[in-house]
Write a structure and sequence with these properties.
Blueprint (H helix, E strand, L loop, with lengths): L2 H16 L2 H4 L6 E4 L19 H5 L8 E5 L3 E2 L3 E3 L9 E6 L6 E3 L1 E3 L3 E5 L2 E4 L15 E4 L5 E3 L1 E2 L12 E5 L2 E5 L4 H4 L2 E5 L3 E5 L6 E6 L2 E3 L4 E4 L9 E6 L2 E5 L8 E5 L2 E6 L2 E5 L2 E7 L9 E8 L2 E3 L4 E8 L6 E8 L2 E3 L15 E5 L5 E8 L2 E5 L4 E4 L3 E5 L2 E5 L11 E4 L4 E5 L2 E4 L8 E6 L8 E4 L2 E4 L6 E7 L6 E4 L4 H7 L15 E3 L4 E4 L16 E3 L5 E3 L22 H5 L12 E4 L6 E6 L7 E6 L5 E4 L9 E4 L6 E9 L2 E10 L2
């Protein structure tokens, strides 16, 4: 190590002891670079002198404000261990540099050196461990030249079982696969799971103030990101964004998570999470041996795509403690959850798309918002609540079940809570099951609605094949447990028998999706969903970086709903017609255009008020990178962006120092 680096490292630690506040101010924050073409004998302090291995990064004692930058296009087959905490305002950030695809951290090793055995059977000469028969199993994956991934089908030890492409067996340390040609040339790669995690929390008292941004992690056995166990009641501020995560474990598995966490101020956004053998995001407080309570708050899951689940496709949130833990203020919005691509579903692979559960009902899982999401073709339930308190399900588009299911899908939206308050408003519920013998209930409530248990109104229902056992609503109707079931043909009877429910909802009818076959679930301008909803109260969300968002002000395409004529479903008519954001007289908002952009953007306050304006620009880490002078806008403000790197930024507008609104700005080069 260079003498300067040693001296700087010593000075940083001395100042941390003597004057801890300087760490918070990032005075000595350092950047460490890592590249496949680097060298661990380098100092790692610049893109021209990067480290090479994750093992080297794991050995560095990181401090609050430090960044670890992985070169775009590089791949590592090691486990990244996080062994240090950031602090408020000084996260430790793991991110990318350079151009090209996200850097990858893989839990797999390559199977190579293939030898032809007989027929279509090939043997890998690579010495690899076999995790296929472990209780928490791993698999191999076949990647084609278009980067699509196929799961390997484990068949045991006998090559006689290899009859179809992607079949494999393991005998000793060798993998045998069925392939029409040499797998070394027929596939881009064959990946064999070898490690438990891609990124894991190392040995430390608690995890705090960590961001992972723009790094892909796949092909591990138990989790892509693992937070350690038992959970720590002090854990806070974990951010994962702009990552591709998936192909974890086996189909299905008891422990195969894309992300595992239990943090307050937890944010997952702009991620693509797919093919996790147990849960896309596992947010679970288990029966750990501790007496201190975990009080979790401000969990934000937004703007993600989740695909192909095997138990819970996206967020699985649960608390198994008896009475001491609380989870509250959970914001799950503007996500797309898609299980439509299963042509057949493996045994035991039926998946809820999002799941909230209180373990024994004595603890508190409260204030959950499921807003503005698109749920497509679940293989079990679309949305499931068990033992929860107050929940809000607003402006979602729920497109039924995968038509290839062969067992009972259990319903679409379910509340199984005897002490709860539920709000179900402005949702499209589209039953798309073919005319088969599978029973299905739309909104299923296990408990009586006495005591104003649920508010259910302004929703649009439709069943392509209405039947007596194909119901849009089912709930207990008395304290003795009697159930009522109503299909869409019973609409008038349903309204007359249920004084509290759906009296402002449009009659069940086809929502007129733009293109069902191409998954364009916006609705036509003649849809009965247009203008049939009712405005919901605005809910302001503050993410870990202090950026504000209003979750039910905008639709899934980030265009505003018109509060004077509210639409039902996840998309507003603005998305259909390509209208610029509506200007409402009483809103204090601004227009930002063009967006995305490369050279410039324009900021125009839409509701001018007396006084002066200014705006600030923040990078994704929450660091302010620009602040304008104060001005009185007679013309829109013009911002030159030539010196800004490509990426996602946030612009905040202020009027006389009072915060007005934030908007996202995407800069492309």
């Amino acid at each position: 190590m260079h003498l300067f680096t040693i001296a700087l490292s010593y000075l940083r630690r001395l100042l941390f002891v003597l004057f801890p506040i300087v760490i918070h101010l990032n005075i000595f924050a350092a950047d460490y670079y890592i590249s496949n073409t680097g060298n661990d004998s380098n100092n790692g302090q610049s893109a021209s002198t990067p480290f090479q291995t994750i093992a080297k990064i794991n050995s560095v004692s990181l401090q609050p404000g430090d960044r670890v930058l992985f070169e775009a296009g590089s791949t590592w087959r090691e486990t990244l261990e996080i062994n240090a905490n950031g602090s408020r305002g000084s996260y430790i950030v793991y991110t990318r540099y350079g151009t090209g695809r996200n850097p990858c951290i893989l839990g797999s090793d390559l199977a190579t050196d293939w030898t032809h055995e007989t027929g279509n059977i090939w043997r890998s000469g690579t010495v690899l461990e076999n995790f296929s028969e472990e209780y928490y199993a791993g698999r191999i994956f076949f990647i084609d030249t278009a980067d699509s991934v196929s799961w390997g089908h484990y068949k045991g030890t006998s090559t006689a079982e290899l009859t179809s492409e992607f079949d494999y067996v393991v005998n000793g340390s060798h993998y045998y696969v069925y392939s029409p040609y040499n797998p070394g040339t027929y596939y881009k790669s064959v990946e064999a799971t070898q490690r438990q995690w891609c990124i894991s929390i190392g040995s430390m008292d608690y995890l705090a103030y960590i961001e992972v941004n723009g790094i892909d992690f796949m092909f591990s056995r138990m989790a892509g990101f693992y937070s350690g166990y038992p959970e720590d009641y002090r854990a806070t501020d974990l951010v994962i964004r702009n990552c591709r995560i998936g192909y974890i474990g086996a189909q299905p598995s008891g422990f195969a998570y894309g992300i595992e966490a239990w943090h307050s101020n937890f944010l997952v956004e702009n991620c693509y999470i797919t093919d996790c053998g147990r849960r896309g995001i596992s947010f679970n407080l288990y029966l750990a041996s501790r007496s201190e309570p975990c009080s979790i708050s401000n969990v934000i899951i937004r703007n993600n795509i989740f695909k192909r689940g095997y138990h819970t496709t996206s967020l699985d949130m649960s608390s198994q403690q008896t009475s001491i833990d609380t989870i509250s203020n959970v914001y799950y919005y503007h996500n797309i959850v898609d299980d439509s691509e299963f042509s057949e579903i493996c045994e035991g692979c039926y998946s809820n798309q999002v799941f909230f559960q209180n373990g024994d009902g004595n603890n508190l899982l409260d204030s959950i918002y499921v807003v503005g999401n698109l749920f497509i073709n679940a293989t079990a339930r679309n949305i499931l609540f068990e033992g929860t308190k107050t929940t809000f399900v607003w402006n979602n588009t729920i497109v039924g079940h995968n038509p290839n299911i062969t067992e009972h899908p259990y319903n679409n939206v379910v509340w199984n809570s005897d002490d709860a308050k539920a709000y179900y408003r402005n949702n499209i519920l589209f039953d798309n099951l073919p005319d088969n013998d599978i029973q299905n209930h739309g909104v299923f409530i296990y408990y009586t609605y006495e005591g104003d248990f649920i508010e259910k109104d302004y929703n649009l229902y439709y069943s392509r094949f209405p039947k007596n056992d194909r119901n849009f609503s089912a709930h207990k109707v008395d304290n003795e447990g009697g159930m009522g079931y109503w299909n869409t043909n019973d609409w008038n009877d349903y309204l007359s028998e249920n004084e509290l429910f759906e009296h402002h909802s449009p009659s069940p009818s086809d929502p007129l999706f733009i293109d069902y076959s191409k998954k364009d679930f916006r609705v036509a301008d003649t849809s009965p969903a247009i203008g049939a909803g009712n405005p919901t109260p605005w809910v302001i969300v503050t993410d870990p970086f202090g950026v504000l968002d209003t979750i039910n002000k905008y639709d899934l395409a980030r265009l505003p709903f018109n509060p004077l004529s509210w639409d039902v479903g996840a998309y507003s008519r603005a998305s259909l017609n390509g209208l610029k954001p509506l200007t409402i007289a009483y809103e204090r908002v601004f227009t930002l255009y063009p967006n995305p952009t490369s050279q410039y953007c324009i900021v125009k306050p839409d509701a001018l008020q007396n006084g002066t304006y200014c705006f600030t620009i923040y990078d994704p880490s929450g660091k302010m990178v620009f602040e304008s002078a104060r001005y009185t806008p007679s013309e829109p403000a013009y911002i030159t962006l030539e010196n800004f790197a490509a990426g996602l930024y946030f612009i905040r507008l202020y009027n006389d120092n009072a915060y007005m609104e934030s908007k996202k700005l995407m800069i492309i080069k």
